[in-house]
Write a structure and sequence with these properties.
Largest sheet: 9 strands, antiparallel
Distance between the termini: 12 Å
Shape: globular
Radius of gyration: 27 Å
Structural class: mainly beta
Number of strands: 34
Helix content: under 10%
Strand content: over 45%
């Protein structure tokens, strides 16, 4: 509220000229302030600087789940289902994403996409729309390593997107990647080699400043100095944080690298721990990784893989996010930063020789593991105890198509790896989403 002003009229004294005041002006002003505050309180609004800060987000139960399989790899197919139910036949993913809408209550539903060739086995979960995305281990070199983003907007209303790219030498100049508009039901494709050419491993941050988007990142990578490129989907990683558990790693790859991004403007000192079969330990090599401000660092971690079940735990005073890129049998696979299992979670797995790995970052816990084939027939139902700060491997029966995990306490992280003659596929298990945080719209002031 602005203060009332008075003009000085020649020959007339103003309020400040009077020797005394009966306080009526002050009382009137206080009454107006009190009445205004009362009206605002009844209206359920609070102006800036008055009372407690306004709540900006609220948690809302999902009424529908939407999975968008973006493809981007030749021969990609998609499958959708619920854990324990009969799976429909895979459907091809064309130039446009394959979308699946699931009714409320299908907490154990999932969708995944797959591509097989003589050189690779590519597999990845189909994402759901959200406002922020991180992809780590991307590339923007036309010949050796390139990543293509398929950005879809399956929701009503326009989505506006900004993309920032980080590399080994800091942020990568890409002015054309801000202010991208994706109309409702539309798709935009961004080839990093054309839009943000750079050398080395990259990290990509996508922020929807308006609306929600689903993104698939198709990655083409040549594992050797001279060799044929293979293809895989880069998993979306969690937002940068001070602690991250990376699951979904092959037992004994030929090569493995930890790729870490530090988006902050100060240096990050990252500590690395290995959650193995006999406990958690610090690796002999690269126990700490220094990541310059706004940059990506890549270090070898091959020595931590001895054929047993493992997950990686990284911590840092500065928020970071990361992945592990592993090369096995000439194929490439990526680890996923995962959250602890909570309640029941369902997910699909590709056909092949599979292994589930459960890792505890804290206390001892137990998980019920149930595996099913494509017809919904139960192949495995087993309670697995995970010792404190250790990992355990559970072979998946032949023919396993989907798995349901039910955790007793939120202390266990899960991932799997599958190999066959085509190659290797891995993924961390992301707990099922049952609710989301949505912005609270309040009147402007």
């Amino acid at each position: 509220m602005s203060a009332r002003t008075s003009r000085r009229i020649p020959g007339r004294r103003t309020m400040t000229d009077r020797p005394t005041s009966d306080g009526r002006t002050t009382v009137t002003a206080l009454m107006l302030v009190a009445l205004t505050a009362a009206v605002l309180t009844l209206a359920g609004t609070t102006p800036h600087g008055v009372g407690a800060p306004a709540q900006t987000y609220k948690r809302v139960d999902l009424e529908q789940r939407t999975f968008s399989c973006g493809g981007g790899i030749d021969g990609a197919t998609a499958v959708q289902g619920d854990a324990g139910a009969k799976l429909a036949a895979p459907v091809p993913v064309g130039e446009q994403p394959r979308q699946f809408d699931i009714d409320h209550g299908a907490a154990l539903s999932f969708a995944a996409q797959e591509s097989r060739s003589k050189s690779w086995l590519a597999w990845g979960p189909c994402p759901e729309p959200r406002p922020r995305w991180w992809f780590v281990g991307a590339g923007a070199a036309t010949v050796a390593h390139d990543t293509v983003l398929t950005i879809s907007n399956p929701r009503p209303g326009q989505a506006d997107v900004d993309i920032d790219v980080f590399g080994p030498n800091g942020p990568v100049a890409a002015p054309g990647l801000h202010g991208i508009t994706v109309p409702s039901g539309a798709t935009k494709v961004v080839d990093l080699a054309r839009s943000a050419p750079a050398v080395g491993d990259l990290a990509v941050n996508v922020v929807a400043t308006r609306g929600l988007v689903a993104i698939t990142a198709a990655d083409r990578f040549a594992p050797g100095v001279v060799g044929k490129a293979v293809q895989e989907w880069l998993p979306g990683q969690p937002l940068p944080s001070r602690a991250l558990t990376i699951a979904g790693l092959p037992a004994k790859p030929e090569r493995a690298s930890l790729v870490v991004v530090n988006p902050r403007k100060v240096e990050a000192i990252v500590s690395v721990e290995v959650i193995g079969a006999t406990g958690t330990f610090t690796p002999k090599d690269n126990a700490t990784v220094t990541v310059p401000p706004g940059s990506v660092a890549t270090v070898p971690v091959q020595s931590v893989f001895d054929g047993g079940p493992v997950a990686l735990r990284i911590t840092s005073p500065q928020p970071v996010t990361a992945t592990v890129r592993a090369v096995a049998g000439g194929d490439v696979a990526f680890g996923t930063g995962s959250g602890p299992l909570q309640g029941a979670t369902g997910f699909a797995v590709p056909q092949g020789s599979g292994q589930l790995v459960l890792s505890s970052a804290g206390d001892k816990s137990s998980v019920q593991v149930t595996a099913f084939d494509r017809s919904g027939k139960q192949l495995l139902d087993r309670s697995v105890t995970v010792a404190k700060a250790s990992s355990v491997a559970i072979p998946l029966p032949a023919g396993t198509a989907d798995v349901r995990l039910t955790a007793a306490t939120p202390a266990v992280y899960a991932g799997f790896s599958v190999t066959d003659t085509a190659g290797v596929a891995t993924a961390g298990v992301v707990p099922s989403i049952r609710s989301v945080l949505l912005p609270v719209v309040r009147p402007a002031w």
